[in-house]
Design goal:
Blueprint (H helix, E strand, L loop, with lengths): L2 E4 L5 E5 L2 H23 L2 E5 L4 H4 L8 H4 L5 E5 L1 E3 L9 H8 L20 H17 L4 E2 L6 E2 L2 E4 L24 E4 L9 E4 L1 H4 L4 E6 L5 H8 L20 E7 L11 E3 L1
Parallel strand pairs: 2-12, 3-4, 3-8, 8-11, 11-12
Antiparallel strand pairs: 1-2, 1-13, 5-10, 6-7, 9-10
Bound molecules: ligand LXAUTJHC.
The ligand O=C1O[C@H](COP(=O)(O)O)[C@@H](O)[C@H](O)[C@H]1O binds next to loops.
Length: 267
């Protein structure tokens, strides 16, 4: 690792020299949380995002992880999804299926994707209902400080505008406090119709990792992590603040290039 650091409530920073190094660290991190969750609860409930994240998780399909991870205990969810058919190029489910899920022995019935035959509003309600049933059976843990689900791990990407999951700057979805899953029909990034976990759900997870690469995201990373005054408070990624869970940022050097040096220490 090139550099590591931390920033009060902004979590742990892991800054990598190369994408290869980042991918290995990310695979190790996911495998460790999977092992700990299976040991503690008998299952591992993980929520994925779309975008570049899936490619960065690619080492999980290779040795040793493909053989050492207990895939039969994995339950898969999506922190956000585009409301398109599952075989559509924009589908986060398709991205994960093609890039990860079809390459490891996940139990098909443990894969909980949205119902793609519904409107965005119906799909969000339906997805929340599915998660509620799995909280009742404790496949998904429950938060001890709210009625929210407590996912073992939520993996997020970051857009250059600071969006996480499908929560975009200045969007009313950021204010949702009652629903676990909400919908939007006006995403500034296509496609417009999406469902997304809400902030209370993200911030109730045991572990949240934000995985960011490339210099186009350096400014968003800076605003999400450094103390830069009121302008940064509107950045959705800055609102990711797990109440009792652990937040880790996986960054490559270009994505971390605008971070203030005072937050960093070399390893
Ligand atoms: O639209 C989306 O974008 C973000 C970021 O994607 P990336 O390709 O820039 O990493 C992603 O995390 C989210 O799941 C997706 O729906």
């Amino acid at each position: 690792m090139a550099l590591s650091g931390g920033h009060k409530d902004r979590g742990e920073l892991r800054i990598h020299e190369s994408l290869d190094e980042l991918k290995t660290d990310l695979a190790d991190y996911i495998a460790e949380i999977s092992e700990a969750s299976v040991k503690e609860r008998g299952v591992f409930a993980i929520a994925l995002s779309g975008g570049s994240l899936i490619g960065l998780m690619g080492k999980l399909c290779e040795a040793p992880y493909n053989k050492t991870v207990d895939w039969s205990k994995w339950y898969i969810f999506w922190a956000d999804e585009r409301v398109v058919a599952k075989n559509h190029a924009d589908s986060n489910y398709k991205l994960a299926k093609d890039g990860l899920l079809s390459k490891v022995p996940i139990v098909p019935s443990h894969v909980h994707s949205i119902n793609d035959s519904m409107s965005a509003e119906e799909a969000a309600d339906d997805y929340e209902f599915v998660i509620r049933q799995l909280v009742k059976s404790r496949v998904v843990n429950v938060s001890d400080i709210s009625d929210c689900p407590k996912f073992d791990l939520i993996l997020l990407g970051l857009g250059p505008d600071g969006h996480v999951a499908s929560m975009f700057p200045n969007h009313s979805a950021l204010n949702e406090r009652e629903e676990w899953v909400t919908f939007i029909t006006d995403s500034p990034k296509p496609p417009p119709e999406r469902i997304t976990f809400t902030l209370p759900v993200i911030n109730s997870a045991s572990n949240v990792a934000v995985v960011v690469t490339g210099d186009s995201k350096a400014e968003a990373v800076h605003l999400a992590i450094d103390d830069v005054g009121p302008e940064s408070s509107l950045i959705p990624a800055r609102m990711v603040q797990p109440a009792k869970g652990k937040l880790v940022w996986f960054l490559d050097k270009p994505a971390a290039s605008k971070l203030e040096a005072s937050n960093l220490s070399s390893k």
